[in-house]
Protein 1
Amino acid sequence: MKALLRNGSQGVQRHDARNLQRSWRKFAAFAYVAGQYGYEYEGLSPIPPKGSPNPYFAFRRTPDAVERVTRTAERCPTALQGGQLPGMCLGGNRLRPSAEARRDVDLLHARIMVDYSRTHRQRGVIAFVILPFAMLLPLSRTGFSGTTLLVCAAIWLFFAALWGLGLLIARRRLTKYGRVLTAAGVAWPTRQAASDCRSPEAGQGTVVPRRAGDPGRPSP
């Protein structure tokens, strides 16, 4: 949050973050809070994950970011000192949504899960390309044998099976959370989000206006 607010004070148009808490619902709650401070969730970031299973996600600065920060500071003056965060319950888990914010957080969670599920295929392909070289490199120094090659093949097939299982789970997630968004009238990913994911320069100097009545975007 401090990094996001630092970017806001500098007028940075896009803030990139990754989920390191192993809880996608907490990350969705963070996305809601970020929206209250002028950075709305925009989907996958063009920044490569550099071998990590956790991709980066982009948050785009809104045209009324300064006003949002001011209003949020008035409502939650101790948020940055460990107090209540905007839209979250007081005490205990600081990223536990209140009743009034739960629907927006649920929709953000669905959008994040759709985006995360879309990254599984690409991450698996990269791993399949790198893994054989990683196994064969030490063997090139010690010598090849039928046994060692069979071991390498078995390891590769094991990871291939894990990737296939993960792909099946990712597809089910896409279907499940896609239905949630469809029922809420949210079309996701948007064309802007898809193009931002493909282009490293996209979104660096532009702001996407907030669409009135979009249930997938938290309101200030």
Protein 2
Amino acid sequence: MTPAVIQLAAEAAERKSAEVTDWGARIAWVIGLLVFIAFVYWLMRQGWKWRGALQSDLPELPAAPEGLPDHRLALTGRYHGSTTAGQWLDRIVAHGLGVRSRVELTLTDAGLEVVRPGAGDFFVPAAQLRGARLDKGIAGKVLTEGGLLVVTWEHGDTLIDSGFRSDRAAEHAAWVEAIISMNPTTTTEGAER
């Protein structure tokens, strides 16, 4: 073997024997990343609590009265949240209104019963219903045009838009018509943003 070949073989051996991983630095980066992620989640939680504190003047949500009349309409689907009416990004989190969940909606002559497994149920008396429309989005949820049933109702001094999506979206139009027919002051205006 020539000296050049021996030198190339020695250099190749040195490159192969170099340490591949610096475990100390890698563990430090992983721990730093986990601490950063925990900090971001903590900030998000604090923001949610702060928003709830700002909305603490909202009265408790009413429960459904005993002996409701027969239902006009019923649906199962998803509850996507509530916002201040006309402000589709101003999520309301007080009293659990910001919690997404499955939902069972029942419309009776007495009002709208909202049953949410895993979240607080509430009832909107018929006199408090202010409108219904088909829309495409509400606070963090955007769907196709008309893919969301938005019910506007009054609670205390606040007008609230609550967004629902039925498992069968074709039902939405019937809900809009039924809610509007219950109260002559209800409207479908405000769907355009």
Protein 3
Amino acid sequence: MRKRVRAGERDAFAELYDQYAGPVHRHALWLTGDWTTAEDIMSETFLAAWRARERLHPDEGSLRPWLLGIATHKAENARRGLRRRLAFLARQRQPTVVADFAPEVAGRIDDARRLHAVQASLDRLKRHEREVLTLCVWSGLDYQQTAEALGVPIGTVRSRLSRARAKLARFADEAAAQERAEGRAEKRGEKRAEKRAEKRADNREPRTARGEMTGEAALAALPVREETA
């Protein structure tokens, strides 16, 4: 296929798209955390691949590293553009956001939450560490393929991946410690709220007149009072 794509055969390029559109889209989604942006990156990746087909090395081999390498660069461009747009929007008046509560989007909302959590950790990594991690771990490339995709030596891929994994492990420990602290704080808040509610209930109870019997004693005395009335 590599030679056919390099020669500009449209049928070969259509096969290339059918085979790798999914992996490219997933890779872009992990890097950006946004479905629409990932779809744009996928389209831009194949467009760039078509334009650069003549520079493709004629040797046989999987075209996946080549495509994911292009997608990685496109995703970084998209991230930079997003940061610029967010910085601009932060200076503007924020419009009222109307939430969509349609049941059919519930699954996507859950996926978005998970992606947001992943992105929060990935954003704390350096760009080169993030790229190596997504290519090796989520896109399934080996060290050689990742090196080919990024145009760096294999040793660089290994060291970047090792640093990225160590940082993510530390981030996970920090997040777990924070969750435990928040859980303890929440329990303390619940106990304080219960005590305040009990105090308010005590203050609302009517005071008993002197000598008046209450509870079971009063109920037991009722027949006696009726008979002697």
Protein 4
Amino acid sequence: MKYYPLLRSHSAIETVILANGEYPSHPLPVGLLQQASFVVCCDGAADDYICRGNTPSLIIGDGDSISPENRERFKEILITSADQETNDQTKAVAYCLQQQRNHLLILGATGKREDHTLGNISLLMDYMHLGADVQMATDYGVFTPVQGDACFECVPGEQISLINFGATGIKGEGLVYPLSDFSNWWQGTLNQTTGDSFTIQAKGEYLIFRTY
């Protein structure tokens, strides 16, 4: 059974991918971004990151969102790809995995257009299939893609949601409300923890969201 600790300000994050959604504003993701030693910016996200006085480790994408000034200024660390079958977030993840950077935290992937937000969140399942140990932090909580049985560290009374991606035999311990093989995403939302950890038993894949 895999164990997932809480994401904290001192969590050891190997690589941060900054997507081009709303820039993080909650102290936790902001702090993790500030202390990260390797930050990959997805195209236009580089502009926001740079204007705050930072220098990306790498910029990757199709090159259609970054400003001409930064495109020229940071051309030595800019990797462009015209592949329209994948978005910039996926291009960044694929590059990191090629470089053996498997422990990934994605920030700035939500907000702005709702269709992009849904797409970015659902892609976490694909990244798990590729072998990434990945999480996505927003200004409200953390998304974690999971396969099989798992135990999660939490805070008593913390709200959590389970979004099912075809898993069966779903059971939970340490939660207020019972779990089942949910067929619609909303059915597993707005649960609540009863202690400092909870466990999920399941065959298959699902997504867990833990609020801060």
